[in-house]
Design goal:
nine-stranded mixed beta sheet, FAD/NAD(P)-binding domain, binds flavin-adenine dinucleotide, six-stranded mixed beta sheet, 10 helices, 18 strands, D-Amino Acid Oxidase, Chain A, domain 2, single chain
């Protein structure tokens, strides 16, 4: 039985470990944190956006760029860096905003998302997981009909792919989700995807890791930083750690999000992943809380119902490489959330659990899933704004590469 070490126990690593275990590999899941999903996967927007899947680089981003660069859109903050890697990443992101490129990227992401949907059914049939999972549907709020029309080609693409979405007016949408009555601004159109679920990624990962340990003998090494990938004659032989003895293995899968330090410069995809920092908060749901997940495009906020709680996520801070919780940015985020749907959750300063994470974004929004510079090394990185939605689809793509590389 081939031994695989998966570095990184976020949603992508745990999903990869699941499919590798199921395919008969002896898997060890490794993370520097003391458990799974304590990085970017911890408290994200919780939405499995199968019908959204839109690439970050889009004509709409391009149109808003002057506003964003002048600091007039509070949802975005761009800190220009004199770092060639950042500048090239930024230029590549702009190139991906061209309509044809953006549409092709979105199509690719929707394909991965649709694979996640199928595979999640397998996971749920095999394991009894408790992660406040609910197929609650998702609504995207456009302030005007014109704003919706400007992205209508993406809507048409989704229809051509058989994705179920309805375009509603405010009254029709409010009949389905009464919390929309609380929204203070005009709503021109609502795109409703009834099949999109939400669920807590951290609990999903914790439950699935437990299940994999019991059913497939998954090994875990938590609380240990990987310092290097060991090799002999160009073939992977194991991992070395900061404080622990090395781990022998035949294959290594890197699911470190945006962490590329373990790769030599020559194999590090240059200007391919840059962190885009966001914030979330989780608060007790009020009696009028939404059931359906809601995306407020005006404020770039997402709201999801998770059992007795509401999870809100948003903001996109681009430029700073190191994750740092900014109290000022959190205040901006919290105020915008209260302005939009304050009536749906308890929002006293002590009532909310604040969090921040960095989305590992590629310019095209497509994750990097490919073999590495060593025989037996594979990368599954850069899932950006959609890692929860793409995790199982990406893991399947990875597994196909691994089995092909092993002559399987
Ligand atoms: C505010 C916000 C809202 C979001 N909302 C959504 C949403 O609603 N839906 C959605 O689909 N996506 C969402 N995302 C995106 C999603 O959270 C990410 O794409 C996803 O979590 C990335 O998962 P990952 O497993 O690749 O990375 P991570 O979760 O960061 O996992 C990588 C792991 O690798 C470990 N690691 C790295 N280097 C080493 C090393 N050398 N040794 C040992 N361990 C190492 C880290 O400790 C970490 O645990 C959101 C993100 C943010 C920030």
């Amino acid at each position: 039985m081939k031994r695989v070490a998966v570095i990184g126990a976020g949603v992508v690593g745990v999903a990869s470990a699941y499919l590798l275990c199921r395919a008969g590999y002896a898997v060890t899941l490794v993370d520097r944190n003391h458990g799974p999903a304590l990085g970017t996967s911890r408290a994200n927007g919780a939405q499995l956006s199968y019908a959204y899947g839109d690439a970050l680089g889009s004509p709409s981003l391009l149109r808003h760029l002057p506003e964003i660069l002048m600091g007039r859109d509070p949802a975005y903050r761009v800190r220009l860096q004199a770092d060639p890697e950042f500048l090239i990443w930024g230029l590549r992101l702009l190139a991906e905003c061209l309509p044809a490129r953006s549409l092709a990227n979105t199509r690719h992401l929707l394909g991965l998302a649709s694979a996640t949907r199928r595979l999640l059914e397998d996971v749920l049939a095999e394991f009894d997981l408790s992660f406040d999972y609910q197929v609650s549907g998702k609504m995207i709020l456009y302030s005007t009909a014109k704003a919706f029309e400007s992205g209508a080609n993406v809507h048409r693409l989704k229809q051509s792919m058989g994705i179920r979405q309805e375009v509603l007016d405010r009254d029709e949408a409010t009949a389905i989700e009464p919390a929309l009555a609380l929204y203070p601004d005009p709503i021109g159109r609502v795109v409703y995807s009834p099949d999109d679920p939400a669920g807590r990624p951290d609990r999903f990962c914790a439950g699935l890791v437990d299940g994999l340990v019991r059913r497939y003998g998954l090994q875990t090494v938590f609380g240990e930083e990987v310092r290097g990938i060991r090799s002999l004659k160009g073939q992977v032989t194991g991992l070395s750690f900061a404080t622990r003895e090395p781990l022998d293995c035949d294959l290594v899968v890197m699911t470190t999000g945006g962490g590329l330090d373990l790769l030599p410069r020559g194999d590090r995809p240059f200007a391919s992943i840059w962190p885009v920092q966001g914030y979330s908060m989780t608060a007790r749901a009020s009696a009028s809380a939404m059931r359906v997940s809601i995306t407020d495009l005006k404020r770039k906020l997402v709201f999801a119902r998770l059992g007795a709680d509401v999870r809100i996520a948003g903001l996109a801070d681009i430029g700073v490489k190191r994750l740092r919780f900014s109290g000022g940015r959190f205040v901006t985020f919290r105020s915008a959330s209260i302005e939009a749907f304050g009536g749906t959750f308890d929002h006293g300063a002590d009532d909310v659990s604040p969090w921040s994470g960095a989305r590992p974004c590629t310019p095209s929004s497509r994750p990097i899933i490919r073999p590495g510079h060593l025989k037996g090394l594979y990368l599954n990185l850069g899932h950006g704004t959609l890692g929860w939605t793409l995790c199982l689809g990406s893991a399947q793509y990875l597994l196909d590469l691994v089995t092909a590389g092993q002559g399987g």
